[in-house]
């Protein structure tokens, strides 16, 4: 910054300097400055031209275009500037007495007060609040000298509570930050760290300064983002540093709901004026959302029914009492007594309840944020936004086990049009077919595809049939490849085959009506029970695909989740689709361990670890399908019309009678050699 020049008048000494282009357009007023809200990102309620009361002495006048400062009380700006220079000069020579005083002054720690109140508080040093502004403006001339040797001074200035002061001070402070990062590029990380650390502040008490009027949250946010926007405009390369700070300062999953809400709100504000960070910001929010989602789900699974009911009651109480307000000064954490905090059960219930509320608020906000982009679901904008959602889904959600609600963004918006349906299904099928991906990822993609097609109320019937046929063709291809070396069912070797088979059975259970070609005239399509026992004509190849693969050496009914297998068997039998009960009876005498590969194939390793070798659940697929019912209380409104609930079919009962019940005890330990099984029921390949 060029050195300042001065002129002396009878009333005041004026110092002018030419800084970087200011953030605010202004014209001078007695104590304040006028500014353009468009330039500063400051809205209503922050006008600096309010009525001014008369003063005993002449006050300070700032012009942000010129940083013009007139006399401050009995001291001139030139005197303050010389004081700052003297402190810095002596600091360089090893004398830190005045330098340390300067640090305290610029950190806002000295007891400043208005000169008019001097008689009311005579013990306070005769120093005015306005004087701190003079020191800050004076320091603008010395930012080129604020290198590593001035670390302490820089830290003090960055610790100053600038958000809770008046508008004029906030504007000067922003100008100082801009000058500092321009003159000292190495300070960029410090400055951005200070700004981002305030993203989680949400209550006026978080930035309040003694003897200053309370600053509303909206005004504090506007000041914060005015500073950040100015620095990003000044240093475009700052986006890389900023993204690192956004990630490191994100509240931990166990921090309060209030902090999470404030932080995400500020991230979404930043997203509006920083296009380069939009994708990264949404990815960051999604990744942290998934972590909370998984923890919440694991906590609920570990709870017994009584504790789960307590969580439900706590959520209901929170809604009734209005504790959802993120502006409330009485945060949940602060309202907990010390005795309650020591109670383990209370702590578990409260943690889970808070996580549910965090999830609910963030997802509700994201649904609302994305909705305008899908006003025309066939537009390029909709496809571009959905591609971003698919990217977050593929890299953040899909690889995460136990994610419960985060994936409903793609579920909801993926049903806005057939083009978007195809985009989601195509992404899942591509992952299922990619042999270079881990088996667990391909298995998860199958589960997501099946759950989307089965549960998506807006997924058209012809798409259901198409996906069923596509999966069936791939299933045939995998069977042909695997059967050449197959001795019997083995989930570790043939996981993609079994996950695809389970996906088909799951889709059948929910969407069987869309796999039908024609029905007798006496069937009422609005009454699902009227289909029972009828001679239904199914779409070509549907029955043959299922029969070929069910009765193959891979024996999927033994490996797929028993709950899904049993439901499929019941529906397939009652709708005259395929009769698989004999195969299921036969499978009761099959031991998966005899076909398993690896260290546990003989069960010895399991016995050493106290596993029950008769428990074969670890060798079977789980029944996890990711679009299970959405339970978050507020945001569920977005998906209620998109979702197919499971409804029992009136009159559907299992008429299959097990004729071998009496012999089960005798045959429990009998094992069947899969290599000797016949395929007499298998349709022609």
Automatic annotation (TrEMBL):
Stretches the record annotates as Disordered: 27-57, 318-350, 649-685
GO BP: any one term: transcription initiation at RNA polymerase I promoter
InterPro entries: RNA_pol_I_trans_ini_fac_RRN3 (IPR007991)
Any Pfam family matching the protein: RRN3
Protein name: Uu.00g044040.m01.CDS01
GO cellular component: nucleus
Family per record: Belongs to the RRN3 family.
Compositional bias per record (Acidic residues), positions renumbered to this chain: 324-345, 655-685
A GO molecular function held by the record: RNA polymerase I core binding
């Amino acid at each position: 910054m060029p050195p300042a020049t001065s002129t002396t008048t009878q009333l005041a000494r004026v110092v002018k300097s030419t800084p970087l282009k200011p953030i605010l357009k202004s014209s001078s007023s007695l104590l304040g400055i006028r500014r353009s809200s468009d330039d500063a990102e400051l809205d209503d309620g922050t006008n600096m031209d309010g009525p001014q009361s008369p003063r005993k002495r002449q006050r300070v006048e700032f012009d942000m275009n010129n940083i013009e400062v007139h006399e401050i009380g009995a001291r001139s700006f030139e005197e303050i500037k010389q004081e700052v220079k003297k402190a810095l000069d002596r600091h360089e020579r090893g004398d830190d007495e005045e330098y340390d005083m300067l640090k305290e002054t610029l950190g806002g720690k000295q007891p400043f007060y208005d000169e008019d109140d001097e008689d009311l508080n005579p013990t306070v040093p005769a120093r005015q609040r306005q004087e701190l502004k003079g020191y800050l403006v004076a320091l603008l001339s010395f930012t080129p000298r604020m290198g590593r040797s001035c670390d302490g001074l820089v830290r003090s200035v960055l610790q100053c509570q600038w958000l809770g002061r008046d508008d004029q001070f906030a504007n000067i402070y922003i100008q100082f930050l801009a000058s500092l990062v321009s003159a000292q590029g190495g300070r960029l990380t410090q400055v951005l760290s200070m700004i981002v650390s305030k993203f989680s502040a949400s209550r006026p008490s978080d930035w309040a300064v003694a003897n200053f009027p309370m600053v509303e949250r909206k005004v504090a946010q506007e000041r914060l983002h005015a500073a950040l926007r100015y620095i990003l405009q000044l240093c475009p390369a700052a986006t890389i540093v900023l993204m690192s700070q956004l990630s490191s300062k994100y509240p931990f999953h166990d921090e309060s709901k209030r902090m999470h809400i404030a932080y995400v709100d500020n991230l979404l504000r930043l997203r509006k004026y920083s296009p380069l960070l939009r994708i990264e910001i949404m990815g960051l929010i999604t990744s942290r959302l998934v972590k909370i989602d998984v923890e919440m789900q694991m906590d609920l699974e570990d709870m017994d029914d009584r504790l789960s009911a307590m969580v439900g009651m706590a959520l209901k109480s929170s809604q009734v009492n209005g504790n959802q307000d993120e502006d409330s000064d009485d945060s949940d954490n602060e309202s907990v007594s010390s005795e309650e905090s020591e109670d383990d059960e209370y702590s578990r219930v409260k943690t889970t309840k808070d996580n549910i509320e965090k999830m609910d608020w963030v997802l509700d906000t994201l649904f609302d944020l994305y909705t305008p982009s899908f006003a025309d679901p066939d537009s390029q904008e909709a496809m571009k936004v959905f591609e971003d959602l698919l990217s977050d889904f593929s890299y953040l959600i899909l690889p995460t086990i136990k994610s419960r609600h985060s994936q409903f963004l793609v579920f909801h918006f993926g049903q806005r049009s057939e083009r978007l349906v195809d985009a989601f299904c195509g992404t899942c099928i591509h992952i299922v077919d990619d042999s270079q991906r881990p088996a667990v990822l391909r298995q998860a993609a199958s589960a997501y595809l099946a759950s989307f097609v089965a549960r998506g109320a807006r997924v058209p019937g012809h798409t259901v049939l198409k996906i069923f046929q596509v999966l069936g063709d791939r299933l045939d291809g995998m069977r042909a490849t695997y059967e050449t070396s197959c001795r019997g069912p083995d989930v570790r070797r043939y996981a993609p085959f079994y996950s695809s088979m389970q996906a088909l059975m799951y889709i059948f259970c929910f969407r069987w009506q869309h796999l039908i070609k024609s029905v007798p005239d006496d069937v009422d399509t609005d009454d699902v029970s009227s289909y029972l026992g009828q001679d239904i004509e199914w779409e070509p190849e549907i029955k043959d695909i299922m029969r070929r693969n069910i009765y193959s050496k891979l024996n999927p009914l033994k490996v797929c989740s028993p709950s899904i297998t049993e439901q499929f068997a019941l529906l397939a039998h009652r709708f005259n689709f395929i009769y698989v009960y004999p195969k299921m009876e036969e499978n009761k005498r099959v031991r998966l361990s005899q076909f398993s590969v690896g260290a546990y194939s003989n069960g010895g390793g399991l016995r050493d670890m106290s596993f029950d070798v008769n428990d074969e659940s670890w060798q079977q697929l789980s029944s996890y399908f990711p679009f299970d019912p959405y339970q978050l209380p507020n945001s569920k409104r977005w998906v209620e019309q998109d979702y197919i609930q499971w409804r029992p079919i009136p009159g559907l009962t299992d008429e299959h009678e097990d004729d071998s019940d009496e012999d089960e005890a005798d045959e429990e330990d009998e094992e069947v050699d899969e290599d000797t099984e016949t395929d007499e029921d298998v349709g022609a390949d």
